[in-house]
């Protein structure tokens, strides 16, 4: 295989490929300026700089600056940037066949991936797969399946849930109005219900899980009695951990309550594991923490560690209600992405990823809880929550995007817009971390093979950023 330097020598000096490989700080700056001028304004970025390369938990920005990446590409490169086994498997497949169109014939990686996935599923009934390119496409496919299987039209979703930005999925999304701003009328037949998150119920972080679950399940009964009759309701769709809604895990008792309602009325339970799947929460799939069986499960992001691939999985008798030709797509189940996903299944087991998540999770949560009680932070942190390495930190900070800010019984003790200010300071200090939700929340989603030293470094940067924001007021 040619090295980067050898490849440069082999290319014609004025070729486009040569210029692309011959990266300089000046060239990166020029590309950034060109991108700002010609890439659609609707695509928001954390920083207007060029990300040149990545390795493990680190990315290299323009100018050679190395940054610790605690965003993992928004929970996608779970096993680190450019994992040699995963990227190597994709490169090898790219030299065999790239586009083995799934509506023409079986692709070997497609079928072998299904073979690898079946034993990993949270329930043995989940044995039939269809691969898409993105999480949003898989969500749409799940709704299409649910409507076909039940002969019903309506879908119940969660307040705070995020499922995508396409026309159907932004109709299902309830995390931020920006995703559907100016796009009405949206897809009909969608009914939101509250999720057991203290903000949504006008409570405080001290509210009991039992209290919140009981209230939400009661509201579900009202929806079925007042808005969408059970005989008109095809599915209940929810994330096992609210992602864009604030990194709030669904309590097991809530999931069990939804399962009982679905079983009683013949409604399908669709679990969105796009972000929470693939060992992110300490189990292969987050739903395993509850023991609840989904009728349909959606997975993406970490499935192929950065290569575009998503999946819906269900039981065969449900999948078989769709006639041949009902499902399809030009790039679905791409052979290169499937080869990468096969390698992912091997890496999870061979490199003891779940064991590392368990160890690092204890360290992360413990350190954040210690910061929460630190006098130096003056009550900055309101809540630390999550599972595995999917952790949310919420601040006692007013946010002007939420009407009325916080409930009347919560007194903000932190400066306004604390989350975005802290995230910006982290980037200045050498760590990429993201905010989430309409509330003041930062999400920790480091790579799942992050080392103890890398985690300590990230926590050091985060603590310094928090302390600076508190001092600045």
TrEMBL record:
DNA-binding as UniProt keyword: no
UniProt cofactor(s): pyridoxal 5'-phosphate
CDD domains: OAT_like
Keyword Transferase among UniProt keywords: yes
Gene3D superfamilies in UniProt: Aspartate Aminotransferase, domain 1 (3.90.1150.10), Type I PLP-dependent aspartate aminotransferase-like (Major domain) (3.40.640.10)
Pfam family, one: Aminotran_3
InterPro entries: Aminotrans_3 (IPR005814), Class-III_PLP-dep_AT (IPR050103), PyrdxlP-dep_Trfase (IPR015424), PyrdxlP-dep_Trfase_major (IPR015421), PyrdxlP-dep_Trfase_small (IPR015422)
A molecular-function term among this protein's GO annotations: transaminase activity
Keywords in alphabetical order: Aminotransferase, Pyridoxal phosphate, Transferase
Similarity comment: Belongs to the class-III pyridoxal-phosphate-dependent aminotransferase family.
Protein name as catalogued: Acetylornithine aminotransferase
Taxonomic source organism: Dacryopinax primogenitus (strain DJM 731) (Brown rot fungus)
Lineage: Eukaryota, Fungi, Dikarya, Basidiomycota, Agaricomycotina
